[in-house]
Specification:
alpha/beta; Rossmann fold; five-stranded parallel β-sheet; globular
């Protein structure tokens, strides 16, 4: 089975976000491992807060249609998830919710069905955002995504990256690379 293309995105827009830095570090590890990974910046897909009345009146926003097309083109997702109050960020939840909506004539949950996801997080705290991965895992599982049991949470993220943006800790870097390889492998097996 060929390795699957991975779509990676972070649930943060903040300048200097540890999770965006972790996404970039993961993209570097994927490249070094010979894996194909597309990095999406959710700033490029601005979505209003999900509103069923807005959807009924105007349909899916163009940014949602574009983001869903990107998701459909990739069998594997890498979500890098900041933890807000032990849960998912509003940005990430909103993107997941909008992408779950069907356009006329489109199958339900078409951006998610038959897909696999891997989860990463980073936080200045010792747990590395681990608690926030629980609701992300639950949400994705409930909409048909196979979420890998492996996950990596990078604690003390203010010290985790070198000047080139790589993870300083070799064990953490190896864990992220292992997750990426598994994600690409499982995605390749699930792809039609």
């Amino acid at each position: 089975m060929p390795a699957a293309r991975i779509l990676g995105f972070a649930g943060s827009l903040r300048t200097g976000s540890f999770n965006v830095r972790l996404l970039q570090a993961a993209a570097g590890l994927a490249k070094d491992a010979g894996l194909e990974m597309t990095v999406a910046d959710l700033r490029q897909y601005p979505m209003p807060i999900y509103d069923g009345d807005l959807e009924a009146k105007e349909g899916l926003p163009a940014s949602v249609v574009a983001f869903k097309a990107l998701m459909k083109a990739h069998p594997a997702f890498l979500l890098v998830c900041p933890e807000y109050n032990s849960s998912i960020t509003p940005l990430l939840k909103n993107a997941i919710d909008w992408a779950s909506r069907s356009a006329p004539g489109e199958a339900s949950l078409s951006a998610y069905q038959g897909k696999v996801a891997g989860l990463l997080s980073a936080s200045p705290g010792a747990l590395g955002g681990l608690r926030g991965l629980v609701p992300v895992r639950s949400i994705l599982s409930n909409i048909g995504v196979l979420v890998l049991p492996e996950q990596v949470a990078v604690g003390k993220a203010g010290e985790a990256f070198d000047d080139a943006g790589r993870l300083r800790d070799a064990k953490q870097a190896a864990s992220v690379e292992k997750l990426l390889r598994r994600l690409a492998d499982v995605g390749g097996r699930l792809a039609p």
